[in-house]
Amino acid sequence: MSATGPRRATAPVAPRGSQPAAASRGREGAGGWLAYLLVLAGVAAVLVWLWVGGGQAAKGGTLALAGVMYAAAIARLVLPESRAGLLASRKRLTDVVTLAALATGLLAGGLLLPVPL
User: Fold this and answer.
1) Using CA atoms, how far apart are residues 92 and 108, in angstroms rounded to an integer?
2) Ramachandran bin of 75, using left for φ above 0, alpha for ψ from -120 to 50, beta for the remaining angles
3) How far apart are CA 65 and CA 24, in angstroms?
4) What pTM value is reported for the model?
5) Are 43 and 65 in contact (CB under 8 A)?
6) What share of the chain in percent tops pLDDT 90?
7) CB-based contact 46:61 (threshold 8 Å)
8) What is the spatial distance between Cα 117 and Cα 102, in angstroms, rounded to a whole number?
9) 40-93, pLDDT tens digit by residue?
10) Rounded distance between C-alpha atoms, residue 60 and residue 54, angstroms
11) Domain locations in the chain?
12) 3-state DSSP assignment of residue 30
C-alpha cells in the first residue's frame, strides 16, 4: 500500500477509434485478398509455363517469376495493411525487402542462365 492508498491494476486503454489487429483483419473482406490472389495466379501461370515449356522456357519463366515477385513487393509497399491480405505477414519493410531480394535473385539467375540449344 502506498501513501496515497492502495494501487489498482488497470488494463491499458486503447485510443478512441483503434481496433485490435485481429478485429481489423477480420473485416478486410475480398479487397484484402485481391492482391494476394493476383500474385498467386501470376506464380501459378509461370509455373504452368515452366512445366509445359520444359528446359526451353527456363530462362523466360525465371524472368517472369522475378517480375511477379517485384510486382508483389511493389503491391506490399503501396497497399495499406487492410488491402495487402496475406502479402502482409510481417512488418512492411521486412516483407518488401524479402520479396525484392527473392526477385533480384531470380532475375540474376534468369539473366545468367544459359539458353539450351
Assistant:
1) 24
2) alpha
3) 32
4) 0.70
5) yes
6) 50
7) yes
8) 28
9) 999 999 999 999 998 888 899 999 999 999 999 999 999 998 888 888 888 999
10) 11
11) 30-112
12) helix
User: For cell 518488401, what's the residue?
Assistant: 96
Picking from 82, 103, 81, the residue whose alpha carbon sits closest to that of residue 91 is: 81
CA 14 to chain centre: 28
Q: Give residue 13's Cα distance to chain centre.
A: 31
Cell digits of residue 80 = 495499406
The pLDDT, as a whole number, for residue 33 is 87
3-state secondary structure 36-84: HHHHHHHHHHHHHHHHHHHHHHHHHHHHHHHHHHHHHHHHHHHCCHHHH
For residue 86, which amino acid is it? L
* Cell numbers at 74, concatenated: 511493389
Distances (CA, A) of 62 to 57, 87, 98: 8, 21, 17
pLDDT, averaged across the chain? 82
